[in-house]
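lol ok so funny story. i was supposed to be doing the assay writeup but got distracted and ended up predicting the structure for this chain instead. priorities right. anyway since i did it might as well share w the group, maybe its usefull for someone
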Amino acid sequence: MADRPLVGISTYLEARTRWGVWDLEAALLPAGYPRLVQRAGGLAAMLPPDTPDHAEETVARLDGLVIAGGPDVDPARYGAERDPRTGPPAHARDAWELALIRAALAAGTPLLGVCRGMQLLNTALGGTLLQHIDGHTESPGVFGRHPVRPVPGTRYAGAVPEETSVPTHHHQAVDRLGTGLLPSAHAADGTVEAVELPGPHWVLGVQWHPEMGEDPRVVRALVTAAARHAGPPAPLT
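and the output, tada:
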């Protein structure tokens, strides 16, 4: 049996988290992320924030990378003043995940950005963000849904060719696209809902949360690309 590709997933780092009898700092991740990677045929590895100079070494050990959702990107990262509706910065995550993205792009490692991850991908390539939009989030902690329409001929459309309803929870969105990025899906109001880099390397960002839904096709496409990136398994000795 071929080795399953190893897919790293970035995590939250929370100062106070409670479980059982414990109330401690914790690196954590919604279980939907690793479950979806596993369901798609990959091995999942959590990547808590580390120093950015460890990103290249980390990515070199992976076959694929997911940058997970989370807090708003610090507007200073894309040269903007902070809007009052923008959430508090997560400096450690911003620095670590931007370094992971750049390392993955340099190495040709398949990369999927989810919600914040898509916004960070756009930021890493010199793009900007709209700091607040309405209509794409429910109340705090509640995911909404809306339809997303693929752009024909894109990598995303190759994985999901029809319009679908997706789980969503975001109040920010892509404004100016980063260098080389193409939009590959839109919401009904015109919001860019997916971006990708054309070319041989698999790079995709989606503004919604596939880990909260039942459709595995986006993550399955990532895992398939990760398996190709990994190459054939080592021979038995």
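Helices lie at 32-39, 55-60, 91-107, 116-124, 155-159, 217-230. The mean pLDDT is 93.
back to the writeup now i swear
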